[in-house]
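Q: I have 246 residues here and want to know how they pack in 3D. Can you give me a structure?
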Amino acid sequence: MTWAKSLCFMNSLDASTRNTKSKGDVRSLRLKGDVPAIIYGGSEENKKVSISKKLLKFLLEKENFLSSIINLKLEGKDQKVLPREIKYNVLTDDPIHVDFLRIIDGVKVRIEVPVQFINHEKSPGLKRGGVLNIVRRKIELKCPSEKIPEGITIDLDGVDIGESFKISSVKLEEDVIPTIQGRDFVIATLAAPTVMKEPEKPADAEAADSTAGTEGAEGETPTTESDKKEGDKKEGEEKKAPAEKK
């Protein structure tokens, strides 16, 4: 069974209006531990804001930040936004700027959502050594901003080797469609292993092999220390014989 999770969990973030007019102002803002950002979209003008770098990095560590709706608390009001682009410092890898898109009900957006797989342990194909070949780890969707799914979940329960998952098997909400149209593209397949696992040998067969090995060992005549010495003595006499003839 494959489905799209409901609207993604909303995180909150405090924001402040910024009046930076030069690169120096922006640099000073960053030195204070804040990250400049901008809110755009809709009929309102673009809004320059700043957010805490510490809190932003905390949210970035969570999965799917770019597909999660953020509730910005700005000047006593809540503004739902969607992160669209994050710029990083090439040396420290710290975030240095964020673009936020205003969420307006009814307005459609393009967004990539992650594909997740569950119940690996319940797949008979994986138990037999099959390989889960993931073709697409993310799928781009076009949907109203208020219907952005958290992700697409694929259940591997009962899935055997040779089965595949296509976009047509995903249950999406109304007005939520993939941006790729005209073909039923594959998301993942469960392929056969390159080397099949050999079936385990029955316990009776292992016992028979063990008994046969023991019997073979018992049938051999052990070599004693005296036999070894006699053999060494005879060998020494044979080597001396040609010298006596001279």
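Q: Anything worth noting?
A: Helices lie at 23-31, 53-60, 124-127, 203-219, 225-245. The radius of gyration is 36 Å.
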